[in-house]
Design brief:
The chain is an alpha/beta fold. The chain has eight helices and 16 strands. A hairpin with a 2-residue loop joins strand 8 and strand 9. Helix 4 packs across helix 5 and helix 4 crosses helix 6. The radius of gyration is 19 Å and the shape is globular.
Length: 301
């Protein structure tokens, strides 16, 4: 089983090194990094590592939907050319966390299906994001999962709401067999199978994605500026529900939003007690129990 990753990148100089190290550590064999006109030094890091297992693709994100669709089809072709049996769709601020630390151990990896992987926002703690970002040459392991804190549940009816988007899980991301798909839709939340191919959608219980919206005020300010520019150029082309979290960010004051989302130790304890924040280890354990219970119910019919 050969695994490739498409990595969407724009101005992620703080996270690109840890992201690449982690992808390699969990078993990605080939990385197709698509840089969309980064200006913060990200592309220099990618260029220094290109060749070998890293393929660098430049994309002008000022182009329209047709250019993006052509790019996504090209990514599928590149994955096939690299001999990939599976292709994961990720961004540089996402850390994929297999329960065992190895993608090849996923129970559904060999299934002729699209795996739709749950993704949650990482908590911003007093010292920074609640995830131990891996050093060069290393990746996150199952021993780190208990230290990764994520907003995994929105408020229940009658509870005080976490303001807006941070507690709302971002849409799931995909692992697909590139031989069976033509393309993905914008955002990589749904795959378009080849004609005549039935590609069921499965939700793995042994993998979760930790999304890092906040690391430093400077990075978040760049992200908001880039989102505003993208919406100005292309927002009218996008259908309802597309890039909902981007639209929510566009009106934010970046410095104020960063400060508002920093949680102190007491707030984190309270949110964990309320079931709103979970560690990656706890989420994976609950998902495994739920999958086992569902299997038992099906077996008893």
């Amino acid at each position: 089983m050969r695994i490739a990753a498409f990595l969407g990148v724009k101005d992620e100089v703080e996270l690109i090194g840890p992201c690449l190290a982690h992808l390699r550590a969990i078993g990605v064999d080939h990385i197709i990094a698509c840089d969309s006109r980064s200006t913060d030094g990200t592309r220099d890091i990618l260029a220094a590592q290109s060749g070998g297992d890293l393929e660098l693709v430049d994309f002008d994100d000022r182009a329209g939907e047709q250019a993006e669709a052509a790019l996504l089809a090209d990514i599928v072709a590149r994955a096939r050319a690299a001999g990939a049996d599976r292709l994961i769709y990720s961004d540089a601020d996402e850390f994929w966390l297999p329960a065992t630390g190895r993608l090849r151990d996923l129970a559904d990896l060999a299934a002729p299906a699209q795996l739709a992987v749950a993704r949650f926002n990482v908590v911003l703690a007093p010292a920074g994001p609640a995830i131990p970002l891996p050093a060069a040459g290393a990746g996150l392991t199952p021993a780190d999962h208990a230290r990764i804190l994520m907003f995994t549940a929105p408020p229940r009816p009658g509870e005080a709401a976490e303001p807006d988007w941070i507690a709302t899980p971002p849409r799931r991301k995909l692992i697909v067999p590139p031989a069976l798909i033509r393309n993905t839709r914008a955002g990589h939340h749904h795959a378009e199978p080849e004609p005549g191919v039935d590609l069921p959608r499965l939700a793995p219980a042994d993998l979760v994605i930790a999304h890092v919206p906040f690391s430093s005020p400077e990075r978040f300010a760049r992200k908001v500026a880039n989102i505003r520019a993208a919406l100005d150029r292309h927002g009218h082309e996008w259908g309802p529900g597309v890039a909902a979290h981007w639209r929510a960010w566009a009106d934010l004051d970046p410095a104020a939003e960063f400060a508002r989302n920093r949680r102190d130790a007491d707030q984190i304890r309270a949110l964990r007690a309320a079931g709103r924040i979970s560690s990656a280890a706890d989420w994976l354990a609950r998902a495994a129990r739920a999958a086992q219970a569902a299997g038992r119910r099906q077996g008893g019919k």
